[in-house]
């Protein structure tokens, strides 16, 4: 455990010094600042106003930015460290491979989750100061959704890093994964379904397997509990899961997917050449 | 102590190590030499458990890959190229000391002996240190614990003469209790440090020879050089070896560490036309 925490601490300190972390924190902090600045809390959509309106917008923007940010920075730093000889030196020290791998994941998880969470906390603090009502249930669920999203894409990033032998390859693969998930979002699936190229069941199954779509639908479910904007596919979700069931699925599935990817990544890392 | 048994390593189709059989005993100081691509780094990485391979590598009967913690706790490693770590010096020392169960103060003391004042650089990123400072710190981390095997890749390459002298003293302190594996492209860089030479070529051992072990790691040579005329370039070069000018740039006196004599002669050979008299005498310590 000591080795794991030493490695996690090491990764945190390395990340805090890296330029990507500064940009990452500024982007999410900046989104919240801009949303307040442009008076989003005073605007109304589908009855949403105040902080809930801001949080809905924030989570939608985060879903667009966070996955690619996490994927690219994770594979860049892990594969980059390996290429630059960091692994050769640090793995010559008596640290077990499991402590190293999971310690790195733990450190990186904190580094990617805390800025997005801090931005949301900042929004809540500003709301409290301005006497705007805080939707605590929504805040809690979105926090859990962000945590699951970070775990999911960090796990995928670590899996890619374990396979790729160079930074270029790792970045290319990360981009490809993100692009594939993006291509199978509801809008494109809807198009394919209309053309009759896939059965509705297949399209819904793909949507449920795509973590990006799962987050999107879960975020919408707080905004629009009947999932009216999803059309008939909402019946599949609501019949099979129920609104609460789907919200639970949206937290558990991506987190398990991330953990599974990370575990496969660990097995690959442990079996192969380290530097 | 260290045993390589039919160790082979292939990258895609390239066979980098080809059935290496070696046995290295306690307190042996081995120079691992060979040109680029000979397999030195790959052999070291197999020893550190960083590469998978055919055959087996054991250190005191333990396998580096299987018993990582136990084996690596016994190995102090100094890489040829310092890793580009962004972490501060203090953090690196804390991390290494924490993993190796050693007192960070021991590493700081060793760095101090090598002439590296760590107090002002504790918060500086490791990657921002000069080449010499990085090398001193990595040596201090490798030697600042109870390592039974020291694996060093061109360890003295970036050190100034004074630091090299101390480095040789530090190695001498470990000579009886540790096995040393020193890798280099050229034998003359490390010949005075070792008592055995292993040369690799295309992944095979092509030479395994014991060498005369007459040079003391802590020995010093008193040296006197007389030149025909004062020459600024020579004065600068001798100044870097801490030589004192005893006559308007014409007569120089200083001491050279025993294992450094070949390197020193290599430096003076560049000015051989200027030198009219030169003597090197072993000093009593």
Task: Write a structural description.
- The complex is a heterodimer of chains A (275) and B (285).
- With 275 residues, chain A is mainly alpha-helical.
- The model of chain A has no long low-confidence stretch (mean pLDDT 84).
- Chain A has 12 helices and no strands.
- Helices cover 80% and strands 0% of the residues of chain A.
- The longest helix of chain A has 34 residues, at 51-84.
- Chain A has helices at 2-17, 19-37, 51-84, 86-90, 97-129, 136-163, 167-183, 186-194, 200-209, 211-223, 233-240, 243-271.
- Chain B has 285 residues and is of the alpha/beta class.
- In chain B, 29% of the residues lie in helices and 30% in strands.
- Chain B has helices spanning 40-47, 68-72, 89-100, 104-113, 131-143, 161-174, 187-190, 232-240, 261-268; strands spanning 2-11, 14-24, 29-33, 54-59, 75-78, 149-153, 179-184, 196-201, 204-210, 220-227, 244-245, 251-257, 275-283.
- Chain B has a 6-stranded mixed β-sheet, sandwiched between helices. A 4-stranded antiparallel β-sheet of chain B has the order 11-12-10-13.
- In chain B, a hairpin with a 5-residue loop joins strand 11 (244-245) and strand 12.
- In chain B, helix 4 (104-113) packs across helix 5.
- The radius of gyration of chain B is 20 Å and the shape is globular.
- Chains A and B meet through helix 1 and helix 4 of A and helix 2 and helix 3 of B.
Quick structural summary:
The complex is a heterodimer of chains A (275) and B (285). With 275 residues, chain A is mainly alpha-helical. Chain A has helices spanning 2-17, 19-37, 51-84, 86-90, 97-129, 136-163, 167-183, 186-194, 200-209, 211-223, 233-240, 243-271.
Work out the radius of gyration of chain A. Answer: 20 Å
Overall radius of gyration of chain B: 20 Å
* Spatial sequence of strands, sheet with the most strands of chain B: 5-6-7-3-8-9
- The number of helical elements of chain A comes to 12
Which runs of chain B of at least 5 residues are low in confidence (pLDDT < 50)?
Answer: none
Distance between termini of chain B?
A: 32 Å
Q: Could you report the average pLDDT of chain A, rounded to the nearest whole number?
A: 84
Number of strands of chain B: 13
Portion of residues within helices of chain B: 25-40%
Sheet-strand content of chain B, in percent, reads: 25-35%
Let me know the average pLDDT of chain B: 88
Shape of chain B: globular
């Amino acid at each position: 455990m000591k080795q794991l925490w030493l490695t996690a601490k090491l990764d945190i300190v390395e990340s805090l010094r890296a330029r990507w972390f500064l940009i990452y924190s500024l982007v999410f902090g900046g989104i919240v600042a801009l949303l307040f600045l442009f008076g989003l809390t005073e605007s109304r959509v589908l009855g949403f106003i105040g902080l809930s309106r801001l949080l809905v917008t924030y989570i939608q923007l985060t879903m667009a930015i966070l996955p690619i940010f996490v994927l690219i920075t994770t594979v860049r730093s892990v594969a980059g460290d390996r290429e630059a000889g960091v692994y050769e030196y640090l793995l010559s020290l008596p640290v077990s491979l499991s402590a190293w791998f999971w310690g790195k994941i733990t450190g990186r998880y904190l580094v990617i989750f805390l800025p997005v969470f801090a931005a949301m906390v900042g929004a809540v603090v500003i709301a409290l100061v301005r006497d705007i009502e805080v939707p605590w249930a929504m805040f809690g669920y979105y926090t859990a959704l962000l945590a699951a999203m970070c775990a999911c894409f960090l796990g995928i990033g670590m899996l890619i890093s374990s396979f790729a032998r160079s930074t270029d390859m790792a970045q290319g693969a990360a981009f490809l994964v993100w692009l594939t998930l993006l291509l199978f979002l509801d809008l494109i699936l809807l198009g394919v379904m209309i053309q009759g190229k896939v059965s509705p069941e297949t399209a819904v199954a793909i949507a449920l397997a795509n973590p990006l779509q799962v987050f999107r639908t879960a975020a919408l479910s707080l905004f629009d509990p009947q999932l009216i904007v999803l059309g008939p596919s909402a019946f599949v979700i609501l019949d099979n899961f129920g609104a609460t069931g789907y919200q639970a699925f949206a937290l558990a599935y991506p987190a398990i997917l991330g953990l599974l990817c990370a575990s496969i990544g660990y097995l690959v890392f442990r079996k192969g050449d380290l530097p | 102590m260290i045993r390589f048994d039919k160790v082979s390593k292939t990258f895609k189709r390239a066979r980098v190590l080809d059935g290496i059989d070696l046995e290295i005993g306690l307190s042996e100081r081995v120079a691992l030499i060979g040109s680029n691509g000979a397999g030195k780094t790959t052999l070291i990485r197999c020893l550190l458990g960083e590469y998978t391979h055919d055959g087996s590598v054991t250190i005191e009967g333990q396998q580096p890959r299987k018993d990582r913690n136990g084996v690596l706790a016994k190995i102090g490693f100094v890489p040829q190229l310092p890793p580009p770590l962004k972490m501060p010096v203090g953090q690196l020392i804390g991390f290494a000391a924490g993993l190796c169960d050693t007192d960070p103060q021991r590493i700081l003391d060793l760095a101090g002996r090598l002439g590296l004042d760590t107090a002002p650089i504790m918060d500086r990123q490791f990657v921002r240190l000069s080449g010499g400072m990085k090398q001193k710190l990595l040596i201090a981390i490798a030697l600042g614990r109870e390592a039974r095997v020291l694996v060093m890749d061109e360890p003295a390459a970036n050190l100034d003469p004074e630091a090299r002298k101390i480095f040789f003293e530090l190695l001498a302190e470990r000579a009886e209790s540790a096995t040393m594996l020193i890798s280099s492209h050229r034998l003359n860089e490390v010949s005075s440090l070792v008592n055995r030479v292993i040369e690799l070529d295309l992944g095979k051992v092509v030479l395994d020879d014991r060498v005369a072990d007459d040079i003391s790691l802590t020995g010093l040579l008193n040296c006197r050089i007389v030149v025909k005329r004062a020459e600024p370039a020579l004065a600068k070069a001798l100044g870097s070896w801490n030589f004192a000018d005893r006559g308007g740039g014409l007569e120089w006196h200083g001491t050279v560490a025993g294992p450094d004599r070949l390197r020193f002669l290599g430096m003076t050979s560049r000015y051989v036309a200027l030198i009219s008299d030169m003597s090197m005498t072993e000093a009593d310590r």
